[in-house]
């Protein structure tokens, strides 16, 4: 087999963001662009030489071509075995599962997650370490540094590998094992949840569910587990066939982009339980009949009920949430007498806590929930957790959440996204806030008094690594909080995220909608950050 050493010009923009490198497909297809990043991964991870690499993606446009390129580069860089999902498909949590189960040297996941797909849309690539989790910052920095200085990459000349048939293919000295993308993942789910109990819920016939796969990667996973293994009626999983452009939509399970599901859940004879997942299968949205569970509440509810589910019956070690996620889970941790952690946005910051056994459950407000079973957030896992809970408690989603609020109080929560902003304006807004951090404490803004203001910094309690500039926090005592940060997953312009939360202990007031309960606080946010002035926007694009 011929190995070519191809000259490349360094690309200095290959800096992974919140979750991997995401670019427009047209950028990824720039000659040598993908190859440059992949070579940087191989150079930064010498263990891959002679090791095993897990490979797969969410099936979006350019997935199959990128897989072929990476296979050719893997041979050229001395990888001895690639574990590839059939058709180039692996959900992000399934990839994490394979990396861990087969003790591999890591994995490459091709996805831009909840971003749209297609020739004019986004593609993404990220490296996960042998613990199955997204590379921590020290690794992404090493990859970026290498991408900036590379002069050559190595690639084999070989025929296309048929990636659609299960089994082993030998390409030169490298073995490609093409595996079913669902098998190992489904087995892992069986070890965590009570499948008999969930099956009974479906077969008794008084319960119905709708799972919206948003024409993304979870379709085959949800069909197998919900319809084939758990006996849910055919058609429970809708939009189940993964498409390279996700049918033209945003594969993002939230109130805006999964509107079909939200509407179906509002119908008088609608399903009892609704759920959706994103492009790469790591996000989840949980709905009851005409009832939305905020992801922050979902984490808290799962933590408070974990003892009812086989995989967590021994109890949980601790809970971690990303900084902008509401503080609902902290109260549960206190009640359970376990540690609570507040980390920067992005799943990579949970890895050390999970590896050290300090936490069992993790969550983000952005529809991400997960546990120590893998090292990624896991959409279908969260859905099965809820389903098992519904089977155990035989109450509605709404009843379970309202009961939770009565016990712990309610954290009204919302996130307002201002998308496609001019980068200068967005950066100026953050800079102006940052300059005022020292003067804000003690000031009264609307009905609220600032008790603390900072730009969130985090020191990892396990390895001492530090992350700074992770978002502006304005605290108003223990009751309310505003957070401002710029997105790190976009591929054009800037997105401002404004997170608002307010705690309400009084059950008589739990009936309000989040937008009503939070409007006074949101007015403070608009004014203190001068959102209209810096962005020219009067209203957010996406409210979740
Ligand atoms: C967003 C979310 C963050 C999440 C990240 C990756 O990042 O806010 O919580 O971890 O997406 O999710 P940002 O930087 O745009 O706010 V996924 O499902 O796109 O991998
Ligand atoms: Co995702």
TrEMBL record:
<dbReference type="InterPro" id="IPR045244">
    <property type="entry name" value="PGM"/>
</dbReference>
<dbReference type="InterPro" id="IPR005845">
    <property type="entry name" value="A-D-PHexomutase_a/b/a-II"/>
</dbReference>
<feature type="domain" description="Alpha-D-phosphohexomutase alpha/beta/alpha">
    <location>
        <begin position="14"/>
        <end position="149"/>
    </location>
</feature>
<dbReference type="Pfam" id="PF02880">
    <property type="entry name" value="PGM_PMM_III"/>
</dbReference>
<feature type="domain" description="Alpha-D-phosphohexomutase alpha/beta/alpha">
    <location>
        <begin position="184"/>
        <end position="287"/>
    </location>
</feature>
<dbReference type="GO" id="GO:0005975">
    <property type="term" value="P:carbohydrate metabolic process"/>
</dbReference>
<dbReference type="GO" id="GO:0004614">
    <property type="term" value="F:phosphoglucomutase activity"/>
</dbReference>
<dbReference type="GO" id="GO:0000287">
    <property type="term" value="F:magnesium ion binding"/>
</dbReference>
<feature type="compositionally biased region" description="Polar residues">
    <location>
        <begin position="1"/>
        <end position="17"/>
    </location>
</feature>
<dbReference type="InterPro" id="IPR005846">
    <property type="entry name" value="A-D-PHexomutase_a/b/a-III"/>
</dbReference>
<feature type="domain" description="Alpha-D-phosphohexomutase alpha/beta/alpha">
    <location>
        <begin position="296"/>
        <end position="408"/>
    </location>
</feature>
<protein>
    <recommendedName>
        <fullName>phosphoglucomutase (alpha-D-glucose-1,6-bisphosphate-dependent)</fullName>
        <ecNumber>5.4.2.2</ecNumber>
    </recommendedName>
</protein>
<comment type="similarity">
    <text>Belongs to the phosphohexose mutase family.</text>
</comment>
<dbReference type="InterPro" id="IPR016055">
    <property type="entry name" value="A-D-PHexomutase_a/b/a-I/II/III"/>
</dbReference>
<dbReference type="Pfam" id="PF02878">
    <property type="entry name" value="PGM_PMM_I"/>
</dbReference>
<keyword id="KW-0460">Magnesium</keyword>
<dbReference type="InterPro" id="IPR016066">
    <property type="entry name" value="A-D-PHexomutase_CS"/>
</dbReference>
<dbReference type="InterPro" id="IPR036900">
    <property type="entry name" value="A-D-PHexomutase_C_sf"/>
</dbReference>
<feature type="region of interest" description="Disordered">
    <location>
        <begin position="1"/>
        <end position="22"/>
    </location>
</feature>
<keyword id="KW-0597">Phosphoprotein</keyword>
<dbReference type="InterPro" id="IPR005844">
    <property type="entry name" value="A-D-PHexomutase_a/b/a-I"/>
</dbReference>
<keyword id="KW-0413">Isomerase</keyword>
<dbReference type="GO" id="GO:0005829">
    <property type="term" value="C:cytosol"/>
</dbReference>
<dbReference type="Pfam" id="PF02879">
    <property type="entry name" value="PGM_PMM_II"/>
</dbReference>
<keyword id="KW-0479">Metal-binding</keyword>
<dbReference type="InterPro" id="IPR005841">
    <property type="entry name" value="Alpha-D-phosphohexomutase_SF"/>
</dbReference>
<dbReference type="Pfam" id="PF24947">
    <property type="entry name" value="PGM1_C_vert_fung"/>
</dbReference>
